[in-house]
Every structure is written in C-alpha cells, then in structure tokens.
Batch of 2 targets.
Target 1
Amino acid sequence: MALAFDEFGRPFIILKEQEQKTRLRGLDAHKANISAGKAVARILKTSLGPKGMDKMLSSPDGDVTITNDGATILEQMDVDNQIAKLMVDLSRSQDYEIGDGTTGVVVMAGSFLEQAERLLEHGIHPIRIAEGFEMASRIAVEHLERIAQKFEFGPANLEPLIQTCMTTLSSKIVNRCKRDLAEIAVKAVLAVADLERKDVNLDLIKVEGKVGGKLEDTELIYGIIVDKDMSHPQMPKRIEDAKIAILTCPFEPPKPKTKHKVDIDSVEKFQTLRLQEQKYFDDMVQKCKDVGASLVICQWGFDDEANHLLMHRNLPAVRWVGGVELELIAIATGGRIVPRFQELTPEKLGKAGLVREKSFGTTKDRMLYIEHCANSRAVTIFIRGGNKMIIEETKRSIHDALCVARNLIRNNSIVYGGGSAEISCSVAVEAAADRYPGVEQYAIRAFADALDSIPMALAENSGLQPIETLSAVKSQQIKENNPFYGIDCNDVGTNDMCEQNVFETLIGKQQQILLATQVVKMILKIDDVISPSEY
Amino acid sequence: MAVEKIFKDEASEEKGERARMASFVGAMAIADLVKTTLGPKGMDKILQSTGRGRAVTVTNDGATILKSLHIDNPAAKVLVDISKVQDDEVGDGTTSVVVLAGELLREAEKLVASKIHPMTIISGFRMAAECARNALLQKVVDNGADSEKFKSDLMKIARTTLSSKILSQDKEHFAKLAVDAVMRLKGSTNLESIQIIKKPGGSLKDSFLDEGFILDKKIGIGQPKRIENAKILVANTAMDTDKVKIYGARVRVDSMSRVAEIEGAEKEKMREKVQKIIAHGINCFVNRQLIYNFPEELFADAGILAIEHADFDGIERLALVTGGEIASTFDNPESVKLGHCKLIEEIMIGEDKLIHFSGVEMGQACTIVLRGASHHVLDEAERSLHDALCVLSQTVNDSRVLLGGGWPEMVMAKEVDELARKTPGKKSHAIEAFSRALLAIPTIIADNAGLDSAELIAQLRAEHHKEGCTAGIDVLSGSVGDMAELGISEAFKVKQAVLLSATEAAEMILRVDEIITCAPRRREDRM
C-alpha cells in the first residue's frame, strides 16, 4: 500500500485501518477485474446453444440443481468476487426484463472484456474504449432494427409463436418434447394475454410441478390446481357447477385486534359464553350455506367442530390455501375474496364448472383441480417428470418460453437465431468503424470482433470447427447480402435460419447488447479496488 | 495475471472431463452398491443408522437402501432421487431403475472415452428408449377384460415381485394375501384402506388377511368386551375439558367456592356432551382424541364401548370401513350417519389385545396382520408387501402385463439392436450401447444367482431371434426357461417407468460438464 507523507515525514492516513486493506490501482485493477469477469463468462460459455451442456450445482445444504439457465447457474454459484457479482446481476436483470438470453448476455459481456483488455495493453484509455463500445452498441442495435422482421400471428395462426418458443426450449434438457411444451406455453400466454393492450400478466399463469409420470404428461389446465385436499376426508371429491365462497377469515371465533379479556366469574357467564361459541360456529356455516355456496375455500384453518358442521351440512371445504393461490382462484372463478362472514353475498361467489380431487401414484398425494371457470383468464401449467431436478429445470424452461411468448405479444419483431444476428451486427459495426476518426475506431472494431464470439461459442459447443465455420458463414452473409445465415447447430444441412425456423425476439437481442455494453463500461471505469485483506 | 478467485473460500469447481468423471464414478458406485440385491437370488443389506440407538434395518428394497445413505456426490443424488420417485409412483423396480441408469452411464463413459460428444450419445439414447418402449408396447398382454385370467395375472405378478424379497419362502401365501387385498379395493389406488399390523411372534406363514378391521387399541375398563350389531359413532372431539374457545376468555374468581361452582359447570358441560353422544343411540364410540376418566366412566355406565386415541389414519379408515361419518358436533343426532358392523370383539394376537370389527358394511378396507420372528423381519416383510400391493394396485388400473425373468430386457435389446443397425451416423454407437446396458440387467440377475451369466445370456439371445419367444432366465433351475409356462410376469407400467426414468437420469448426468459445489453451510458450533 502506497503511503503519502507530509513535509515532516508523517504518513497521511486516508483510509480507515489502511494497513489491513489491499488495494489495486490502475492497469492492475483493470486487469484483475477483467479476468474475473472473463472467468464467469467462461463458466457459462459451454451452456450456450442447443448443444450446450448443463451445470450441476450443489447448494450449501447439499441439494443438487442441474440446469442450463444462465441466471440460475449464476444465482446459485456462491460468488465472492465483486466483479463476478456484477456479472451475476447482469444476468439477473436480463432475466427480469426479458426472461431469456441470460447465458448469452454474460458470454457477450465476457468477450467485450476480453477485447477491452487487448486495447488497454495498446495503451488506449479505458474511457475511450468505453465510449467506443457505446457507439458500437448503438450501431448494432440500429442494425438489428433494420434486419428485424415483423410477423403476424393471431389466435388462428400460432405457428410463428410456437416456433420461437421452440428455439428457446431447444437448448434445455426438455428439448425432447419441445414442440408440446412450446404449444403449452403459447396457449397459456394467449389465454391470459390482453391483445389490445399488448400486455401479458404472467402472474396469471401458475406453474405447478409434481414428481412422477413423464414429461409428455405435462398439461395445460384452463383453471387452477391447488396442492390441497378437502378438509374432511369424507367430503365429496367431485363437485359440478361449484359456487365457491373465497374466505380470508378463519372458521373460528373472532379474535379482536385490540387487547381484551373476558372474565368468567360465575357459572352463568360460563354457560352463556359456551352457548355463544356454539352459535357462532353455527352462524358461520349457515351464512355460507345461505348465500348458496357449494364449496368453501379458506385461507385459514377450521376448528374440528366447524369442520364437522360443514361436512354435516354437505358443504365441502378446503383449508390453508395460500394467498397467491386464493387470488388466482378469485380471478379465475370471478369471485370476490371475502374477509368477513357478514359480507358474504351471492354475487361474491366464484363459479367453476368442475372441481375435483385427483390422487397420484402410490403415496397419498392429492391435488384439487378447479376447472371450467367463469373467467378462463387464469391458467395452470402442470408439469410431470421423472425426478425433482427435471421438474425444476422444466419450470425454468417453461418460464423462459412464457417470457419469450410474452415479448412477442408486446413487440412482434423477430431476428433470426443461430448467431446470425450477431454475425450480421458484427459485419455492420465493422463497416461503420472506418467512418469514426478518433481512437474510438479501434474500440468499435474490437466490439465487432467481440460479437463474433457468440456464433463462435455456438459452433464450438456443437462440435464444429469454430473459426472455419464462422468465416464461412460470414463470407456467405456478405456475399449474398442476406443476414439470415447462422450456425447450423443441429446438423440440418442448411445455414439459412429462415429455413430452420430459428427465431429470437428483437427486444431480447437488443437488450442483451445494451446490458452487456453497460456492464462492461462500468467495469472499465473502475481503476481502484480497495478491499479488506484477508486475515 | 493470475485469474482472480471468484468463488467463496470453500466453494469448489470441477470442469469438463473431470466433472464428467466425477459424476460417472459417483453414479456407478451407487448402481454397484444396490446391484447385488437385484433378482430372486439377490442379497440383502444391513443398514445401521447414525442416530441414537443405532437402529438396524435389514432390507432388499433399493429405495430404502438409498434413502438411508448419506451421499456427497451430486450425480449419485440424482440416482437416489429417481429411485425415490419410482417408489412413490409405482412402488416397485426401485433397484432396477438405479442399476439400469448406472449401466447406461457405464456404457456412456466408454463412448465418451472414444471421443463421441455427450449430446450425440443423448440423442442416441433417446431414440433407443423410444424404440424399446414401442417394442414393449407391441408385446404386452392385456387381460383386463377377462377377470379370471386377470386374477391369475395378478397372482403371477405378485409372486414375481415377492420372490426377490424376504417373503419368497411363502410367496404363494403372500401373493394370495396381496391379490385379495387389492381386489377388495375395486380399482382405487388408495392403499390407505389396507391396514398392515405387525405383531412379532409366530412365523411368517401365520400372517393373515382379515376381512374386517382391526384397531390396535384396548377397550376401556368396565365396558363390554363384545358387541353384536354395533352402531358406531366415529368422532374427532375433545373429551378432556371442553375449553371455551372464544379468544381472551379466562376464569377470574374471588373465592374458592366460585372455583368449585365453575368446575361443577364444566363437569356438567361434559356430562351434557356425553349425554348427547349417547342420545345417538350408539353402543360404540371411537374418538381420535383422548377420553378422560370422567367421560369414560359415564360411557361405561351407559354400557357403551368407548375407544380413545385412535390415531388419525385409524379414524379415517374406520369411518371408511363402517360407513359412518367423522363427527365433531353432537346436536342433531338424527342426521349423523352412524357406522355399523356385525360384531366388535377383543381378540388376542400373540400377547396383545386388539379390537376387531367384523361384518362391516363397506368391503373395501381390510387388514393384513403380519407375524414374524423379529421386528427386522416384520419391517422387511411390510416393505415387501407394500411393494407388491403398489404394483398390484397399479396393475388393476393399467392391466397391461409383460413376462418377467429378463424377458422384457431381451425383447427391448433385440429391437434396439436392430435400430442401431439401421441408423446411420455416430448415434448408432450410442444405440448399440443402450442395448448392451439393457442386457446387463438379466446378466446381473444371473450373476446374483450364481449362474454362468455369459452362457445363459448367449442362449437367451439365440432363443429371442425366433418369433414370439417367451424365454427368460429360470433362476431356480439355473437355465433358460419358458416364462409363460413358469408364470413369471411383470407389470408393464413398472417396466416402462424403469426405462423412462433411467434414461432421463442418465441423460441428465451426461449433460453436465461442470460441477460447482457451494461452501457447506456452517453449523453453529455446539458448546
């Protein structure tokens, strides 16, 4: 640690407990940061593309996750380095914003850093590099806009949507039945989409998984599944034309919020209190019955007595249903959530065509299906699979596919996948570089090189010769002036992604480039790292 | 500049070949561990728990063995997981699924060593699994329509399942027990209504199926020990002090006499409750919760048999069996459905007194009483019987049946082999490997029985090149035998689940090229 001295030779103390901290400055700091960022990108690089490999992550508690999803890998990776944490954040923000392309964004940022390192060695100032990258990213995003295509889809023509979702799913372990899952995802999104406002509320899609069966048994249910069963084992397991009372108050005597005490000091009081209690239970059940409910769904538990009364009056009930599920049920059945028994009215009841309990396998797992709802705007995707890890991974994959479908409904522009968009951008950026007079020119050119790394990684993961394949595709693009040539990962025999039906969303791709550039800029601006040294 | 450390201190990372090796080795170690338990001549394992008492379990059940292991290798955990799922879903084949997945990975390892990309192997495995499944589908026998034949199918399946367990000596007896019990369920897969009671003493042969219901409880003192034409009220209610449940209520008195008064009122309340219960016109009262001495005495006075503290399952089953409802309030005696049975009596099994309900209305439920020399034997017998019951109840729903004794594996291997010959490209190596992995299962069965596996498998393969062959390994005589004649059958559903989950698991492990282990969570040091 360098120390500053005043004219009397006494050291200035600038940082608190200066001796205990390590400090990296200048080029060293840049290099250290870049190498950390690259290390993270290198981990994800092999997961890119349809032939990408998975990572096995073992959590602190020993649980195993196997995944291909960049955001999940980084989230669970137990990263300590600050720059690596930035990369983790980068992937997470892509996940929140777009939902897909979480691996690609990190790999892209990694290759930007790699190029930046080379420029730094040439002695170019980091800020100039950052500015050059910024300009280049603008060029790339504009170019993407130019090569993007709009496609039309409607309820009758879902094919383009399904194809796009399939592109997303093909890199996951579920690609065996990607067609089925893509259809499910598209149908689910369309069921809840507001096509006029071009918005999709993904909260209305519930993804529920249960171990057992096989992936092909995964189904889309126009309704809600609740992982609960009837409160009394002898209640009917199947209710048709159910009128559902959705309650958030317990079937128990009221508990006033203010502190209170009821003192019992005589036999009479004891008796009246007892009678009151009995009447209270009776009233509650009677109220539900009076408004015509044929099923009670309650957020809280019931007392044994209330439970039996319900059973006795032939009023099936479900208890301990979670808040989110309760809301979904309310949306699906068109009912209102009722916080007090007094406020129950017939209009507030939800309606469902069929409520049934279904049991699975040899254990006594039961689930409640609420189907044919009044308002089919809430749907459930019910995943089955061989083991817990497959189900978790399928959930993540379905989430990606749902996000992609949503993005397409928001903005129906697409670019072609298989690295074709990156190659095309790289060509465009390269051509534009020469027009910039300053030092930035180098940075822009480096940016173009960095964009090539994505198709290169794709080719490498697919077992092709990376450099050879890339140069062939690139020359083909320039020669035929067709931005749709990409890497033929699946060995289909054509490089034309248009023919292979490999699409990605425009906003997803744009976001990737913008986010990656932003993070790289941020990392480049750091020239001093002060951290507590280990002791 | 050296690469900065990006992980936390104790986190570790394994990449590429090393990661793959680590997962292969882990998975195969698990497969080898349970391998010797496969087949009718498979051996058992002793498991000793690390908990207090060092409880010992002797078992042959793959799922039980794997469940009790403490495993650190993540790939091994995947296998443990599939075996658990197999147990939950179909109940049997828990060992086979792990062994098959292990064999698939063993073959995959060789392919990876000869520079075939894991993704190519996976796509080959998928094609092979699909083809194998279709091969089985073509060969299934469905006797669901013919109840006579179906019952004999069930018997065969039960015998086959039981023959690899501790019950194999008395498999005929237990197969009959299991089939009878499952047939009573009439298609429901709810095994809850089959109750298994274990009582040490006697021999396994003394186990029996009881048509009625046996509750492992004692009859209260001074109450009738035998009731004919019983009317039963099944209840879940507090019979100690019936508390006032309105929140915040408390007793506040200023003199001793008041306390006595309130106590009297409480007692009165209890008495009223008992009166109400008696007013239902019952002669047997079964409660889930405790019954205190005072109400018990009242019941005894009224000549009512009161049974306390029957656990929740017991109550549910009893309600199901007798057709009554579980009551918690007693104000409208006319509309509460009471349970009925012809006779309640106290019986003795070994040294224990149990309550036996016979002549019940609903024939669905039944009780199997297991007898045996020791707790270990009984535990293992229960697990074996549970496996058999699971398989049978699944078969009742999906009545497709296959032959056993390595026959399905041979059929699949043959088809898959054929597919390999037709498929161009590197995939065909993977498909061929799949067929070899399938053959490993009959090989292991033969090995475990101490037979000359190489010779037997070669013979079997030759046999299977004839159309409509029904040959499999006859472990008892140690030769190739006709499975149809020997009556060795397996449920299609089990085989299918084994095939699909094993392939899925193998695929999952193959796809991994990096293992990242987080630092183990620190436990607070106990002082």
Target 2
Amino acid sequence: MSYIKVDANSDFSYHNLPYGVFSTPDNSRHRIGVAIGDHILDLSVVKHLFNGPELAARQDVFDQPTLNDFMGLGYDAWREARRYLQMFLSANESTLRDDVTLLGIFLFIAPVSSVFLFPLGDYTDFYSSRDHATNVGIMFRGKENALMPNWLRLPVGYHGRASSLVVSGTPIRRPRGQMRPDPAPVFGPSKQLDIELEMAFFVGPGNRLGEPIPVERAHEYIFGMVLMNDWSARDIQAWEYVPLGPFLGKNFGTTISPWVVPMEALMPFVEANPVQVIQADSCLSEPIELNRSYTACGGPDPEPLPYLLHSDPYTFNINLFVSIKGVGMTKAASICESNFKYMYWTMKQQLAHHTVNGCNVRPGDLLASGTISGPEPKSFGSLLELSWRGSKMIDLGGGETRTFLKDGDEVTITGFCEGLGYRVGFGPCMGKILPALQQ
Amino acid sequence: MAAENFWKGLLALVLLTFNSSPEFNCNFNMSYIKVDANSDFSYHNLPYGVFSTPDNSRHRIGVAIGDHILDLSVVKHLFNGPELAARQDVFDQPTLNDFMGLGYDAWREARRYLQMFLSANESTLRDDVQLRSRAFVDQSFAVMHLPAEIGDYTDFYSSRDHATNVGIMFRGKENALMPNWLRLPVGYHGRASSLVVSGTPIRRPRGQMRPDPARAPVFGPSKQLDIELEMAFFVGPGNRLGEPIPVERAHEYIFGMVLMNDWSARDIQAWEYVPLGPFLGKNFGTTISPWVVPMEALMPFVEANPVQVIQADSCLSEPIELNRSYTACGGMTKAASICESNFKYMYWTMKQQLAHHTVNGCNVRPGDLLASGTISGPEPKSFGSLLELSWRGSKMIDLGGGETRTFLKDGDEVTITGFCEGLGYRVGFGPCMGKILPALQQ
C-alpha cells in the first residue's frame, strides 16, 4: 500500500493513519503528525498538499500545536484529510514519494522527543461496561442489587478532571489522602492503587449550549479514539464518594495513549450493537435483557428511551491487553486480555445522552468508556475485579503476585484491531508508579 | 468626551474641598471617580473583569469603579513596579488567566497601583485628560464576558445547614449528614463548558427522570428546575501534578471570588446520580457574576472560622460541633426576595477546600474555579435553594401579589447579588442573573 515499509505487526499500518502532536530534540515546536510504520509524517511540512474543497482554505489547522482546530472542522474535512493522506502515502502516488525536497518530512517515532497531549476542554468518564458494573455491584452490594436501577436505562457518567490527564510515559505518583479502613479516618498513602482499562473518544465539532446532538447524527461529532488508564485509589474513593461521586480517588492522574485513531480506520471492525430491549411487563421489577447479539432496537415499551436509540452498528472489535512489570521483573506479565466490543452503551448513545439536556461539548473534549470488562475473568479491566476485592492473588509469574499496585510497577495498555495481514493499533498507554510523597 | 471629563474632574475637585477629614467620608475622598455609597464598586473593591464595547469588540481586562470600568489594556504601561513592569502583557490579554497565574505578590502590587491611579490625591491618571478619556468606559456601555478560561470547575458541598436539610428531606433526621461530611470537604467535578456569565439565558433542560419508581422512566422537560446560591473562587498560580498545596499557604493560590447560581434539575439529578454523582442535572448551565473581587478587598470582612472539633469519644458516632459564628466575608444575597443568606455560614474554608483538592497531587491551574456548594444558614429565610425553601415542594414560596413557587417557571428571572458592608461603602459583586427559557419542543 505505502512506499513506507510497515511491519505486519505494527500498530501504524497504512490502514490506520492516526493523528498526534509531537516535537523532536532539534525542534521543540509542537506540531501535528500522522504515524505510519516506524515514522511520523509531519503535517506542518506538507499542509500545502491538502488542497481539496474542505481543506484548501483551512490548511492552517495543520500548523497548530494541537489537534483541536482540525477536530473542529468536522466530518467532511476529516474524510477528505484521510483521502489525501492515503493518496500521498500510496506506493502508486509520486507527489510525496519522489519529492526529494520534502526529504525529512518523515521522522522516526523512536527518536522523537515526545508525543504530546493537547489542551483538553472537559473530560467525562462513563461506566458503560455491564460486566464491570455488575462485578463491582456484586462485590459491594451482593448479587441481587448488583446493577443500580438506572444502569440499563441511561449511560451513567460523571465529570472527570481535565488538568490531570497525561500522555503515555508520564510517571504517576501514588496519592496520599483520607481513608477510613477502621472507624476513625486516617491520612496516608493509598494502599489500594488500581488501574482501569478504558478507551476514550475525542469530540469533533461542538454543539451550542441548549442544542442537543441527536443520536442518529452523533457519529459526525466523534473524531477518533485513544486508550486510557483511569488510575484509581480505591480506599480514597470509597470514603469520599457518597453522595457526589469519585473525586480525589481519580483526579491524581489519568493516562491516555498519544495517537488518536480516526473513526474511519475503525469502521472496518464494527459489529452489531448489544440488544437493549427491556420486557414491557418487567418494567416494575428488574428489566430482563433478551439476548445480546443484534442491533439495538426499541421494544413495544420503548426502552431505552427514543433519544438513545440508533440502528446503525457502532460497536468495535478492538483487542485490548494489560501488562504489569514490577521492580526486579525481567519482563512484563499479562494480566488482562479484553475487547472494546464488550461495551453495553455505544459512543453515539453516550454523546447523545451527554448533550440531551443542552450541555455543550467542544472540540478536544474527551469522553471515556468506563472500565472495560468482559464476561471471562481474564477480561476484567481492573485489579479490583481481577483480585476480586483482594480476595485472590493475581499471578505475575516468577513468584510475583499482586492484589493492588506496588511502587515501581509499570502498567502498559495496548490495543489493536486485527485485519488481514495488518493492524490498526493505538501505541502504548503506559505509566510507572512513583512512591508517595514522604513528608 | 474630553471636555466632559474635564468638567467631571473639576467637579470632583470642587466637592473635595468641601469635605471634612478623609476618615469620615472614606468613599468620596478616595477616588476622583464618583462612587455612590450603595455601589458595589467602591474604591475599596476594585474587582477585575473582562468586557467589550459596541465600538470595540475586543475582549479586554477592566476594573470596576462606581459606574465606570477602567480599561487596563489602555493603562498597562503605568504598572511599572518590580512584579509587573516586565509582565504588563498580562493586561493585554482577553482573559484574566495570565494575571491570575502571576501570583500573590503581583496581585498585591497591581492593587497598590490601582489604588494609586484612582486616588483623588494622585495626578498620573486623574489629570491626564487624553488618557482618562480612553481609559474609562461607562459600565452601561460595556458587555461583560466570562473573566477567565476555566480549565476545570469543581463544586464543593460545604454548607452544613444545606447538607443537613437535604439529608433530612431524603434520609430522615438520624442519617442527615453522611459520615464523611464533617471529615473532609466533599466535592465533585463540574462541567466547565457550560459556565456562563450573568445575563445568559438558561434553557429548561429535557432529560430522563423517574418520578414514579413503580413505573418506567420518562423523558421530557424537567419539572423541578431549581437554583443554588453559591460563591466561587478563582485559582491563581497552579501547582504541579503530584505536588500538593499545603493548607497554610493556600491563600497564595486564591485570587478572588464571584457569585454563582448552580442551576439544577432535581428530577434529572435524582434518577442519574447513583453512584457517580450529579451530571446532566447540573451541566446544562451554571451562571457566575462577571466581576472577580480580589481577596484583599474581602479581608477586612474576615471573621473567625467555624470550630471543627470532633470529640474523641464520639468518633464512633456523629461528631459534635462546639459552636459556630464565623468564616471569611459577609455577604447578603437577594434573589427575587426569596433568600437572604451569608457566606459566613460555610463550614469548610476555601483554604481547606483547596488543600484537600490537591492533597492527592491533583493539579490546579490559573483560572480554575472552585465553588462552595449551596449556601444555607440556620434560618429558613437563609436557605439557598428552592428545594429547601419549599421543603421538597411541600410548601409554597410566596413571591407576593398572589405568585407562589415550588420550582422555577419558564420566564422566571433569578438574580443573586451580594456585598460586604463597610462604613459608608460596599464591596460587592454585581449581578449573577439568568432567565429561564422554555424547553425545546421537538
């Protein structure tokens, strides 16, 4: 496909073309790039080549130190950019391939000094994995009351902290805080530091305050996706969260992967949505879900409510992997293999719900899925679930075990869609735990 | 314009000569700009805001004084003290973030210089007719904007009376306050994008609700649209991720305050909020007043903090508070004469809130906004929400003339005001107002 050689196992095949912001040791300016194989195509150098109807007058968006302006241009501009990128990088197209003066527009990913996060507006975290919510519910409330009454009716979510979103590679310091292991609260380093395997999407154009985004058009507002680790301090969280939700148990740091994979690259891996039908006569008790392999639809008693219903498939088969490498371990141990397809609520439903009351989203806003767990224990996306609230040890091999994280642990989340002889992947979402402050 | 200002200046001089010693007529004698005794914007206030005018749409920083605004972008060259001389650019910005980020010493210096330029005894600005004509704008001529780019907005829950009232309404007297309430300042992340400046209309939200637990949830316009009287502070310099702000130094990070109305849709909130907290019941709109009153202007009105002692032997039961008469700043708030309250009723101080917020390493940034939570005092007249004033809809709130309310109606205009009362002057906040538009139809 491309004259740039790409390994079959590379995340950054010709079918991917994710966007990111980077700089280099010789040029500290933040600029936009596209990952391909082991290289980055510097869009600020080739912006003049984007001369289609959507982008010709807006080439300036590729000169920005953030992706926000490009995301704000909208669906048609993103599609055109992708067409042009596929053209420039094609083995059959000479514009870039043979242009000697443009040598150096391709940079190696490895020596690049950093890949950056750009200023995010608001960050929202959802809770949309049914297995995760059920596991947590069983652990804390018992099987009968596992899922809250609202869970199957609306995509439950909460506002997260934007300032502490960091890019993969940023160290995460173990937080100190107030906890209540015994009747009297204490202050000290968290002893229940956990991970949360998640994915998140960036919002493209925004909507005006008071003007909801209808679910059938929500995909026009969804730019692309990243991996996320929503580090959590369970002890701090448990003591603070009633009644207003998680706060300091979450906002000490949240890591995302640096390359934003556009939705077009993921569409080949779309599958049918889970069925979300609730029996009419079970409205008065717990809703019964019929099965889970077909397109979402309303039943005779429309559940979920119409503003959440969309018929087009928007569930994605993305393989996800989590590993931990502790101090003294020679290689990382896999602790989780999961998949984004396990989500109950789609991204379109989440975005429509988020704006149905008139709330405004803006380019660069980030909406995360919530911890991703599947039905099998190996697919649980948090140590809380993998260790079942600390009741069983997670085996890392070589005599190493965990319930929660230790100082020095390096957690890496990776993910990719498997195509025929190629991958569409996300790069690493990694963080290493630093010890808590002493004094 | 110039001639008019000249006569205004002359008039001020004339009036000055007839005044007795300055201490007995603080307000009048302080500035050559005439300020009414009931004005929020006395010489003792000097709040910062961002405005534009019909003839110049550029957002710029100003200071309110009397009925005027001093355009700081026009007089930035006058700030030539050690902190600001090399950073006059902060007054050329369309938001206050850079100025907030400079820190405590720079804010103090800016205030000293403002007090000097505006002083009746100082000629630099007073007698420079050209500069004065460009520097002062009539407030009625200006449009106010959000004063900062707000990266993150956090809402606390720090009024004991409010938390107790809500607890009694929903859980009964025995379980009114949650066990964590007296141990830490409970808070949650709010939505920054829907923070709007006073005067922005607020559209009644639609959403999912479950008014009857025995029936399926429904979708439609909220029927329990409420207000929340709050105050909020802006953060100055930030801290690095992983490096908490110690409580004893937290005041160096607190820039100034505004009024806030945290509009709430109680029915949407009640159905969604378990277990992750309020979300769509809040984020359809939040209004703040446009003038940020610097902490230095509020310090004369500081009082002792509430006592927060918990009896050792009651650790296993509810903590007992000894007495309560305290905390920073007085302020009266009227909203269509339904509530008169005071910021002094807060249980947790802003320093405690900021220290708690960063104790785990969370990073705050210049322009971040931290709100107090609904402010209620011990008396029913001081309750800061319709939920409490109507006691969950069980009693009508009398608006006079036959008008009553439980929750808001379309077309209602809610105004929050507040001020500290000094001797012959006020330090106030301007209006925090919003009018309810009907929900979307389709």
